[in-house]
């Protein structure tokens, strides 16, 4: 790739590829996707195996360090992440500054970015050990901030982490416990969250990860880079889709309405799109959606919500779309976000927290990519070119002559 780019440079040629449809921006050994076959692997391990057998922190270790941890390594890693879950007390004041109905993603962008003011050693990005500590801090503190953003939005006091709990159980407790009522998460909730977090942990050079890499390529503070990633994730074409799917299902409202909305989705004059359908890379069933669909059944059964009308609606919509020429020709299949919102909802997680949940899990991917990039001696600042299409040279006229 290096040779091709220098050849292009010498010849004064560069490629025009809006949306980066066919441009690789880096080498990476973290995640492998085959979009035609519907294959996803983290560090070589099939997502289906990790999702059913591993814990989220085990997967986090794998993404960060390249190998599955041995028992003492995992114990150490869990201990380190646990030690970093607390926030500086002064950070609590930041939450108070947000309006009570601020979207939790807005709070997350702001507060994670503000961590850069607490950990601002500018030399740290050039030191491997410092980079590792930043990565640990982010994995540990983002859930605490995410849960605090939710507590702020409902006017309840922020709950401190409880470090004797596992990662997902601790997060659920920070969301749902109050100083008056402690909360023990049910095992099914913890298991479902563990699985959703694993499925969302990384997905190679998606918009938010590329944003983190681009921001980081200038040597910027990692907390600020991850805040940039969170901002990119928020959009409905990316991580915001899980919230948009639920909005869409509620808007459709009834199985009888599905066909009408399908026609809207196909109409090019109508901005309506089938949210949770389609993917830039997968031209086959998203393997994560396959796993989530299965788990959705189990979770709804366990929380005695088997006849959940939204799930029925989603399955009907999928059935019709998979047999519709428009969707078949364009290879549009359900993506990871199509069913995740239904599970979150069954677990009692409010809609405006869905994308925040995604951000908590994806933090692991972001920091893994940032670490990989920063330790690459060939790393250089990301700087795309453009095709200039503005006016030719013209002369400045004094304002009275324009
Ligand atoms: N509903 C209806 N039509 C669609 C949809 C959809 N969800 N997705 C794509 N199409 C159509 C497009 O209109 C286009 O049709 P055309 O060729 O007749 O013009 C064709 O399929 C190709 O779509 P593009 O928008 O060119 O595909 P792109 O790769 O740029 O976009 C994206 C991918 C953003 C995911 C898109 O499919 C979409 O908007 N989906 C809905 C939002 C969503 O679910 N996002 C989550 C993605 S997964 C994630 O980020 C975790």
UniProtKB/TrEMBL annotation:
One of the record's GO cellular component terms: cytoplasm
GO biological process: tricarboxylic acid cycle
Pathway: Carbohydrate metabolism; tricarboxylic acid cycle; isocitrate from oxaloacetate: step 1/2
Annotated active site: 279, 337
Matches recorded under CDD domains: EcCS_like
Keywords assigned by UniProt, alphabetized: Acyltransferase, Transferase, Tricarboxylic acid cycle
Reactions mediated catalytically: oxaloacetate + acetyl-CoA + H2O = citrate + CoA + H(+)
GO MF: citrate synthase activity
SUPFAM superfamilies documented for this protein: Citrate synthase
Pfam family, one: Citrate_synt
Lineage top rank: taxon: Bacteria
PROSITE patterns for this protein: CITRATE_SYNTHASE
Presence of keyword Transferase: yes
UniProt xrefs under PANTHER family: CITRATE SYNTHASE
Family: Belongs to the citrate synthase family.
The protein's name in its UniProt record: Citrate synthase
Organism encoding this protein: Marichromatium purpuratum 984
Gene expressing this chain: gltA
């Amino acid at each position: 790739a290096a040779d091709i780019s220098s050849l292009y440079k010498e010849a004064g040629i560069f490629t025009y590829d809006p949306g980066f449809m066919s441009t690789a921006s880096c080498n990476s050994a973290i995640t492998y996707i085959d979009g035609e076959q519907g294959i996803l692997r983290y560090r070589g391990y099939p997502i289906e195996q990790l999702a059913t057998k591993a814990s989220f922190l085990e997967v986090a270790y794998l993404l960060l360090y390249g190998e599955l941890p041995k028992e003492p390594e995992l114990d150490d890693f869990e201990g380190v992440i646990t030690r970093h879950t607390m926030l500086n007390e002064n950070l609590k004041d930041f939450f108070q500054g947000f309006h009570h109905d601020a979207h939790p993603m807005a709070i997350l962008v702001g507060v994670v970015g503000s961590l850069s003011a607490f950990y601002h050693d500018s030399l740290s990005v050039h030191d491997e050990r410092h980079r590792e500590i930043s990565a640990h801090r982010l994995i540990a503190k983002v859930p605490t901030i995410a849960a605090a953003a939710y507590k702020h939005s409902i006017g309840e006091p922020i709950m401190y982490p409880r470090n004797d709990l596992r990662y997902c159980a601790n997060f659920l407790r920070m969301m749902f416990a109050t100083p008056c009522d402690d909360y023990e998460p049910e095992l099914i909730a913890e298991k479902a969250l563990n699985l959703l977090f694993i499925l969302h942990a990384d997905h190679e050079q998606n918009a938010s990860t590329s944003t983190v890499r681009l921001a980081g390529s200038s040597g910027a503070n990692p907390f600020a880079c991850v805040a940039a990633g969170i901002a990119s994730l928020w959009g409905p074409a990316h991580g915001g889709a899980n919230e948009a799917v639920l909005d869409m299902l509620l808007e459709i409202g009834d199985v009888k309405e599905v066909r009408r909305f399908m026609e809207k989705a196909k109409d090019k004059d109508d901005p309506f799109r089938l949210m949770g359908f389609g993917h830039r890379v997968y031209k086959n069933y998203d393997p994560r959606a396959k796993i989530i669909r299965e788990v959705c059944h189990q979770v709804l059964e366990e929380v005695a919500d088997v006849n959940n009308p939204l799930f029925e609606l989603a399955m009907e919509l999928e059935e019709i779309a998979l047999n519709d020429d428009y969707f078949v020709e364009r290879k549009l299949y359900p993506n990871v976000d199509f069913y995740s919102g239904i599970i979150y909802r069954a677990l009692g997680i409010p809609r405006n927290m869905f994308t925040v949940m995604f951000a908590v899990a994806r933090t692991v991917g972001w920091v893994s990519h940032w670490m990989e990039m920063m330790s690459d001696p060939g790393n250089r600042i990301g700087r795309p070119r453009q095709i200039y299409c503005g006016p030719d040279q013209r002369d400045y006229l004094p304002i009275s002559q324009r």
